[in-house]
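User: Fold this, then the next.

Assistant: Folding the first:
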Amino acid sequence: MLDQTPSRGRHSARVSPSISHRAPARRRLGIPMSVALTAVTAALLLAVAVLYGAPADTRQPAAAAGVSQSLEEAGKSSSWKERRAERVKERRARIEARAAARAEARESASATPSPAGPVAEAAPEPAAQAPAPVAPAQQGSTAASTVRPAGQSGLPYGAGSFFRSRVTGAPVDAARTSQFRAFMASHPDQAGIDWPKINLNPDWAMSYHVGTANDPVWRLAGGNTSDPRLAVLRTQGFHMADSVADSFPNGDQDRPGVMVDTVFGYTVQFADAVPNKATRTITVSNAGIMWHGSNGLDGRNPASDDERNFTSRGRIPDAMVIRRDQLDQAIANGTGLGHVLHLFFVETNTADGVVHPMTGAEGDKAGWGAEGERIRIRPDLDLEARGLTGAALAIARTLQEHGAYIGDNSGSSTQIKASQPHHYSGTNLTTDALKGKISWADFEVIPRGWQG
């Protein structure tokens, strides 16, 4: 309702004195229609202005207009800021989700090889429960792996690979352990040598090199290199320092080599090497390749994720040598090498067959154990209390943490292959570094094919 007192005051001058006796009633109800309409219109305009913001020329009183406009703008500003904050939050969440997806893809790429090349991080299971293999890259491809070795001192293959799998929590086959200890104490070539030897004999040790882009490229010829899976070693080759060619002995020794190519992304293993410096070609009797981005298993192993992996009987090349860079890192960190070792065993038993990770076995052997069978130093043994230090302690820790699998027959006592002695100058690593500290009675046998 309109305020009666102001209206009467504003319009009282228009009331005629001659009708003043009727004026009170007319003053209350006698407002001209045009004025009433004007007032109603003004009220509506004012309401609209308050709700939507008055135009600059409405000439509202400054205070009223200011308060009305401030409330409206404050409401709109608050709402807009909230919506903007929500959009920013949503956009940030999408960006973070995409980043997480890319990171997951990179991690997945590190775990599972793609058709374009193997990638680092796929985890095999025990042979009895082998995972379905991922579609492998084409055999014979010359393309380098897109993933370089990663992890401890450039270790290849995935953290879940057999090569890097730990055995500290593995179960023990008590019956096999008892048989193993009795065999090692009685075999003619092993009795009296109750410790693992480390082969540093220059004529029989493993020549090796970790190749970089600064090294020249060498290629293989002869032997089985005509196999499509090894074609890349004849055409693309591998990085190796020329000086390594001088480490191969002359004669009828095995003359083995392991070349880790961090540029092309694979490790090359071969035997009976005859290098030609003029052509940078090495003629061999047998060769193998393992792609770093894969899970490090021969393509014939059902648990392998890359059919291009191909070695003699499924041996893992990188387990066949003790690299100095990894040894130094293990000593500095108080750990083992971070990977399983390849055991050159006194004599296997052909009747025991072959188990994961191996794919084949040598024939006519009547000793003990299947190729691929794995042993470890029992986890509760205090190695330092046995007097082990430095490089010798690092090797013992490796045998305790990751163990060793039977991969070859040695033709003599059981041993772990290292490289030529000059690689280990300044350390206490010797052929008999474990003598009097570790015995075969300290070892346990892991169930066949087990992988944690």
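Now the next one, as you asked:
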Amino acid sequence: MPTAPRAASYTISGDTIRNIVDAIADGAVTASLKAKLRENEAEKVRLVACLDFLRASTKVVELHPASIDAYRTKIEELQLGLQSNNSMQMACEIRSLVTSIEVHPCAERGQVELS
């Protein structure tokens, strides 16, 4: 969602545009008024794009509570395995947490990036 300064800026821009349009409708057409209208309309387009980006970037995927509990349990079991030095248990817990490993070659020979 927009931050308070951005939301206020959008409101001010919208009000300014309406005032300029009203002045033009009343017959006060000047070059500076037209220029100011163009500036405000461009600012409005920029702010709308900014708001759209913010809305799109704040969408959150909710996890099922059972999956969160299962993940916590796996982490606790991994911690126990690390404390007990039980390498077989640790390997099993890590395998249950990691679904895949992707290896990407880097520009430098012999270097890879893992994800």
